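Look over what follows to help learners.
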Amino acid sequence: MSHRRLRRGLRRSLPFLAILLAFAIAAATASATAMVETRELRIELNAAFQPRDLPVHSFAPVRFEGSLEISKPGGGVPPALQQIVLDFDRDGRLDVSGLPTCAPESIAQASVDEARAICKGAIVGTGEIEALVALPSGPVPTSSPLTLFNGPRLEGKPTVIVHARTTVPTQQTYAFTVPIEKRRGEFRYRATVNIPPLAGGLGAVTKISVKVGRRYSAGGVKRSYVAARCSDHILRSHGAFSFAGGLVIEGVGLEKYCAQR
């Protein structure tokens, strides 16, 4: 099972911080859930993939689904999420060969529908983001569909462009780049998501859900944006989450069962 660790914030300490980590694997559905709870926030991370039956040595197309929920025990606005670092198992593979790209500046002022039309060929995932905005009258919810586009390479590395548009307290469009780094060791890829301030710094993310998967043809070859194999019956992922105020929670891991075929 994955380890867990809580690091004290850089700008403040967290004395007597209680951590509860619940970890479960639902093998029948190839899904997994991890939960961390402290005095200041609660995180629940869910992930699943299809199909569950995968080759042992070669890679087969898959579709991943994931969600992150953040709340404050007792209610109210939780600390603002600022960064997510996600590591993915070596049995996963990313393929962007011949896949169209979307430049973030081309959709920086676009609505959700406009962005999806402008960069239709580069869509690799969709989802939704929800947040609470701390207004003088009290917390107000806001949400937006998310679109994930294959982005231009950055220093030779593949990227994802994340697009969303919120309307509370005013309309604000987001189009930012997520670099994907190939690594050695247990995890093949690392995605670093630096989340821009929401609602001028008044907003805090409460939920992010995504579905990632794209099959396409390039150069006469059928390809899949994400693929996986099942060399040891387990697909692993690992996350670290940084919040306003210096709180960092890392070591949140998920293990998802796969069947060899």
